[in-house]
Amino acid sequence: MPGLTTFTPFPEDVPTHPLLVIDYQLVKAGDAAEVEKLWKAATELGFWYLKNHGVDEQVNAMFDMGRETMALPLEEKMRFEQGDEGFSFGYRAAGMQFMDERGTPDVTEFINVSKDDALAWPDTVHRTYPSTVNARMESTIKPFVQKSLAINHFLIDVLSDTLGLPKGALSALHKVEEHSGCTARVIRSPPHEGLQTKLFLTAHTDFGSLSFLHNRLGGLQVLPPGSDKWFYVKPLPGHAICNIGDALNIFSGGILRSNIHRVVPPPGEQAQHERWSLVFFTRPNDAVELRALSDKSSVIADAIAKASPGKYEPGVTAGQWLARRVGSQRRVHYKGPESWRERQGTEDTPIPSGGYV
Known about the structure:
Family: Belongs to the iron/ascorbate-dependent oxidoreductase family.
Protein name: Clavaminate synthase-like protein
CATH class: Mainly Beta
Strand content: 15-25%
Shape: globular
Number of domains: 1
Domain Fe2OG dioxygenase: 178-284
Distance between the termini: 29 Å
Region (Disordered): 333-357
Helix content: 25-40%
Structural class: alpha+beta
Largest sheet: 8 strands, mixed
CATH superfamily: B-lactam Antibiotic, Isopenicillin N Synthase, Chain
Order of helices and strands: EHHEHHEEHHHEEEEEEHEEHHH
Strand order of the largest sheet: 1-2-10-7-12-5-4-3
Number of strands: 12
GO molecular function: metal ion binding; oxidoreductase activity
Number of helices: 11
């Protein structure tokens, strides 16, 4: 698969939204200024670039796994399709998900590999996978999962400390040895030339705690707080993009921002290429109750005192939250505009459908 630098460059005349650049090695070393910058990114936009993460080799191998998997015959891939009941692991074919109030089908396909299955290999925890996935489970997927977990867990611990929580409070909700919706996903979007769709992935917030994203082309857009206009995020070689998800937003009483974003076709001449992306989603353990941790932190308690009653008490577990959001996206469940509203997460305002840049 061609590297990022072999593609048509990202256009210089396309409006982008700047992200703070966080140096992972400085955060690991306890650099106070870098930790403060991480806190600023996590509480204001909820997105940031992460450099010096040391996962580039595993990222390249994961893209190879994705390419091999997507090249399989559709009939073979469909043997491992997720299904319509909120099960998030396995293959997801194009056209299975709706993207707007009108029920427009999506055009992307992806493979989701469970953290639990990767770490338990060759045993099976949740499901089996295509042969191309199995062939790389030990050499490619497991190392990527392990490194992604280590990075995300460390960042979550840093944010936990800054929230004034007891040491390890958030880690206790993300135990590696317990079942969770943590997922490694490789996504393929077709070249945009000739397609009618304006979206590859509809506007949404992420379901879990922290996402660790690697892009090959432009297409990711964010909706800055207080804005009704979408802006591209420019992919930078060697930099991952991290963002806060719904679970950390809820645990923190809204202090950590789970921001709305979407994926559209790459800008300019980049649209002639297939778009590949890779993401690792860190999510709480399935049995963890989603609720603000106001009883463990005065900082969170102060935030809850200013929030609408019950806003950060959805009354479900992390597993139930994930199943609802995954299952409600399937086209078979589309009944009309109300289905669009039922699939949403922690968004404070209605998701705009326009505002293309």
